[in-house]
């Protein structure tokens, strides 16, 4: 088994089909098919059962997949160690809540670029999804909302946010709550607050971007709960009205977290040094 074969098998498992795996791996489907055929010929066993519904691992394929996950993690760790030893700088794969990425990270990552030439990548998503990706080693560290499970993750405090209820001048707190999908900590805070005032049945409209949410709030299509810093950075912030959420719903801490058994690379350590500097 080589690394390309292992990555291909894992991609099919994660995406559910050969065609989806090809798109994820940025190659043609025939390459995916030929790689799996090589794997099956090597062991003389079927790895996937294919149907119109997609591709499903066989019992033998499940065993191969379990070993592939471990081997790919070991390969990635070895590659990071060797890049660090060679002075080349191992990549740092970061995750972040979208609001944090839009408001807080541009200045922070610019500072990191000034002191580290290591490649950086950024994935955005809600806190629950990001924690899952950190735990599965798909990213190295993530900016998420607290609290954090100290038995699984190390964490340092990064930012303190004040959550505000935000609405357009023409429609104060009317219409649905405009929010990111389930797993977003700010949505959870908003719904907890609404529940405390007897509005747990308030309709929620899910949206994909902070800019889109605030734009719809400005247009009077609903209201949202977001960090005050994000609202103030909106292009038409003067058209919005904000009210701080009451205690205990209004204070939100953002942490940088990573697996408790993860060894931070040089770029990660530089990022921690920047976060530790006095505000």
From TrEMBL:
Which UniProt keyword terms apply here? Answer: DNA-binding, Transcription, Transcription regulation
Provide the transmembrane region boundaries. Answer: none
Q: Which SUPFAM superfamilies match?
A: Periplasmic binding protein-like II, Winged helix' DNA-binding domain
* Signal peptide positions (record): none
**A molecular function (GO) term:** transcription cis-regulatory region binding
Name the InterPro entries on file.
Answer: LysR_HTH_N, LysR_subst-bd, WH-like_DNA-bd_sf, WH_DNA-bd_sf
Sorted alphabetically, which Pfam families does this protein's record hold?
Answer: HTH_1, LysR_substrate
What is the name of the protein in this document?
A: Transcriptional regulator
Q: Which residues belong to any copy of the HTH lysR-type domain?
A: 1-58
């Amino acid at each position: 088994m080589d690394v390309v074969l292992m990555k291909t098998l894992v991609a099919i498992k994660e995406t559910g089909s050969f065609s989806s795996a090809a798109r994820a791996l940025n190659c043609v489907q025939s390459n995916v098919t030929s790689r799996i055929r090589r794997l099956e010929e090597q062991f003389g066993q079927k790895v996937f059962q294919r149907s119109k519904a997609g591709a499903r691992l066989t019992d033998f394929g499940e065993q191969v997949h379990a070993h592939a996950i471990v081997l790919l993690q070991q390969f990635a760790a070895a590659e990071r160690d060797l890049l660090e030893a060679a002075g080349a700088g191992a990549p740092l794969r970061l995750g972040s809540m979208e609001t944090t990425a839009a408001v807080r990270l541009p200045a922070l990552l610019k500072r990191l670029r000034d002191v580290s030439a290591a490649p950086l990548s950024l994935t955005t998503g809600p806190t629950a999804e990001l924690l899952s990706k950190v735990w599965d080693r798909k990213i190295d560290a993530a900016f998420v909302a607290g609290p954090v499970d100290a038995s699984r993750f190390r964490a340092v405090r990064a930012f303190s946010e004040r959550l505000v209820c935000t609405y357009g001048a023409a429609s104060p707190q009317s219409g649905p709550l405009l929010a990111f999908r389930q797993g977003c900590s700010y949505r959870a805070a908003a719904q907890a607050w609404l529940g405390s005032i007897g509005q747990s049945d308030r309709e929620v409209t899910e949206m994909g971007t902070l800019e889109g949410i605030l734009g719809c709030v400005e247009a009077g299509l609903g209201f949202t709960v977001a960090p005050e810093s994000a609202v103030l950075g909106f292009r038409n912030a003067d058209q919005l009205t904000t009210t701080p959420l009451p205690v205990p719903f209004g204070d939100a801490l953002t942490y940088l977290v990573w697996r408790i058994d993860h060894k931070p690379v040089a770029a990660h350590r530089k990022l921690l040094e920047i976060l530790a500097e006095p505000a």
